[in-house]
Amino acid sequence: MSGRELPLEGCISARETALVDGLKRWVAIPSISTDPARTADVIASAEFLHDYAISCGLSRAEIWETEGHPAVFAERTEDPALPTVLVYGHHDVQPVDPLEEWEAAPFQALERDGKLLGRGTADDKGHILMHLEAIRGILDARGRLPVNIKLIAEGEEEDGSEHFEELVVRHRDRLAADVVVISDTGMLAEDLPGLTVGLRGMAYWEVTVTTSSTDLHSGVYGGAVLNPIAVLAELLAGLHDGMGHITVPGFYDRVRELTSDERAELAAVPFDESGFLRDVGATAGGEGGYSVMERRTIRPTLELCGIWGGYQGPGAKTVIPARASAKLSSRLVPDQLADDITRLVGEHLRRAAPPGAEVDFSLIHDGRWVLTPSRHPAVDAAAAALTKVWGRETVFIREGGSIPPVATLADQLGAPCVLLGVGLPDDRIHAPNERVVLNQLFKGMQAVGLLWDRYAELGRSGLRG
Ligand code: BES
Ligand code: ZN
């Protein structure tokens, strides 16, 4: 591009249609990382992103293989003296069951009322394209970027990021950056710009209770033997007391209580508690003595995520199964350690089971909680960018969800992490009818455009904080 520069804002908004079209095409690739039958689709998704990044003006893109699903790396270096920003996202998506609850096919994105409905629209493909189309807009306006940009999009975030640490260690030099911007989070409301400064960690387990060596006729044996479903149900029901506190001894030992100032700060965030529940038809539950906001962000949980055992087919089958199973998980908060909690919960379940009931407890995956550095220039600049675009003061929020790769990136790269996402609580991520509010993505493009300029102003030394 030569001559006069075009206005940045206009060149970025000119990318809106392309973003929506690109997202529709990408959503059509069902990159479900947890489903072995979708392995080829996760690869196709990586290839799609690789080509998309190049088409947006990144000068180099590579597919990075792992022992699991591939990640995509792309970069554009303008000048080594400029700050380098690493953007993190994930190109895999969650499964789509229950399929019958979708209002449209999950992989044929449907545009309706300013939203795009489809698996991965919000979590996280929309966020990645928000960045890529913003880059294209900036290049259209100026022919160059104000910072060096790198993008890392992993392919198994939704499946526990098992190979991410190894990937980051292997490519540490290529990933080196002055700041990492993670775009896989949200805000509390469309009219309330929010920047996430904390995420919970997690540990996910499966438990199986076995009470006999074979299924048993419920008339011949019933009433005279342990029933694994009953044992499991009692074990699970006993994990919380009547006040919603977790009963596992030691579970809360390392929980960092908030100071009253911190609690007041959290309470001051405008948050429509009843609307939050009403939007999804839910009823408040959980730990007594804490607000809904606290329960979902700064308190640890132990949730039951799935349960099965015995006959599930049509009609009746008079049998006592040999075993019953459940999936459960904890969201962890500072300073809980996933290894400790896994040990405590496993020991507790084994101890609480009656003699003759064998408890098999295994970890599926875990990840650390995150607190980003507060009052850091990189974080402040992101808040300022959101404030400018949304026209309202940005609030700092803590999120209940988990993004284990964030701790990995922070540790391995030693760079500050900024959690800049434009999702909304009602995006229905992981659930039927996931959607993204397109205007959030459009404003997000403007915000990152401003942010890169601010990072350039701060320079590499100013970004160090
Ligand atoms: N984007 C989410 C995390 C998230 C959700 C952040 C809501 C902020 C608000 C991410 O893709 C995700 O779902 N993570 C998993 C991690 C797990 C599979 C280890 C989660 O939180 O369940
Ligand atoms: Zn997710």
Describe the overall structure.
With 465 residues, the protein is α+β, with helices and mostly antiparallel strands. The protein has two domains: 3-199 and 369-464, Aminopeptidase (3-Layer(aba) Sandwich); 204-255 and 300-366, Alpha-Beta Plaits. It is 35% helix and 21% strand. The chain has 14 helices and 18 strands. The chain has helices at residues 8-13, 16-27, 39-55, 121-142, 164-170, 172-175, 228-237, 260-268, 273-278, 292-297, 338-352, 377-390, 405-413, 438-462; strands at residues 60-64, 71-76, 84-90, 110-112, 115-117, 148-154, 179-182, 194-199, 201-210, 216-217, 301-309, 319-320, 323-332, 358-367, 370-371, 395-399, 417-419, 435-437. The strands form five sheets. The protein has a six-stranded mixed beta sheet with strand order 1-2-6-3-7-17, with helices on both faces. The chain has a four-stranded antiparallel beta sheet with strand order 11-13-9-14. Helix 2 packs antiparallel against helix 4 (121-142) and helix 5 (164-170) packs parallel to helix 13 (405-413). The longest helix is centred in the C-terminal third of the chain and has 25 residues, at 438-462. It is globular, with a radius of gyration of 24 Å. The mean pLDDT is 96. Ligand BES binds at residues 123-124, 157-158, 160, 184-186, 202, 365, 367, 399, 401-404. Zinc ion (ZN) is lined by residues 94, 123, 158, 429-430.
Question: Helices and strands in order, then pairings?
Answer:
Elements: H1 8-13, H2 16-27, H3 39-55, E1 60-64, E2 71-76, E3 84-90, E4 110-112, E5 115-117, H4 121-142, E6 148-154, H5 164-170, H6 172-175, E7 179-182, E8 194-199, E9 201-210, E10 216-217, H7 228-237, H8 260-268, H9 273-278, H10 292-297, E11 301-309, E12 319-320, E13 323-332, H11 338-352, E14 358-367, E15 370-371, H12 377-390, E16 395-399, H13 405-413, E17 417-419, E18 435-437, H14 438-462
Parallel strand pairs: 3-6, 3-7, 7-17, 8-16
Antiparallel strand pairs: 1-2, 2-6, 4-5, 5-18, 8-15, 9-13, 9-14, 10-12, 11-13
Helix pairs in contact: 2-4, 4-14, 5-13, 12-14
